UniProtKB/TrEMBL annotation:
Source organism of the structure: Phreatobacter stygius
Annotated keywords: Oxidoreductase
GO MF term set: FMN binding; riboflavin reductase (NADPH) activity
Protein name (Swiss-Prot/TrEMBL): Flavin reductase family protein
Domain Flavin reductase like: 15-158
The keyword Oxidoreductase appears for this protein: yes
UniProt cross-references to InterPro entries, sorted A to Z: Flavin_Rdtase-like_dom (IPR002563), NADH-dep_flavin_reductase (IPR050268), Split_barrel_FMN-bd (IPR012349)
Length: 161
């Protein structure tokens, strides 16, 4: 099948029908400054060893930091964190201004009040089209059993359990 017969916008809309969670992926740049971005391409990969995967768009203003980082954290957002998701998806904003966070053992920022977080050492980087895939080995994690924040068809949604 020739992919030239469909548009990227149509494909994006089709991908957007898949309900996902919302994460903020964080790291530190070579100066030690925190960097982060909203991402919904996240999945668990393996329990042994404990691996997770996240996709970073190559057009992200933070791509350089993630290309060089030896560690990162994935912060899964809860229902009350749509403002955090929007802030970390914005361009030009000081994404960490007004957001409470702490440093994980690897040095990556962990956002307070997130649903779950995973502190990871880089296991592998994979170049994949217009994205960089980061596979991380989980060093530590935390869980908060509040309601998750979802994303579908270009909008945030909340789920009741």
């Amino acid at each position: 099948m020739d992919p030239a017969h469909f548009s990227q916008d149509d494909l994006r809309r089709a991908f957007g029908t898949f309900l996902t969670g919302v994460t903020v992926v964080t790291t530190r740049d070579d100066t030690g400054a925190p960097r982060g971005m909203t991402a919904n391409s996240f999945t668990s990969v393996s329990l042994d060893p404990p691996l997770v995967l996240v996709c970073i768009g190559k057009r992200s203003s933070n791509i350089g930091s993630f290309q060089e980082a030896g560690s990162f954290a994935v912060n899964i957002l809860g229902r009350e964190q749509t403002g955090v998701a929007t802030l970390f998806a914005s361009r030009g904003a000081d994404r960490f201004a007004g957001v409470d966070c702490r440093q994980a053992a690897t040095g990556a920022p962990i956002l307070d009040d997130c649903l779950s977080w995973f502190d990871c050492l880089l296991h592998q980087r994979v170049d994949a089209g217009d994205h960089l895939i980061l596979i991380g080995e989980v060093q530590d994690f935390g869980v908060n059993f509040s309601e998750p924040l979802g994303f579908c068809r270009g909008s945030f949604i909340s789920l009741s359990q």
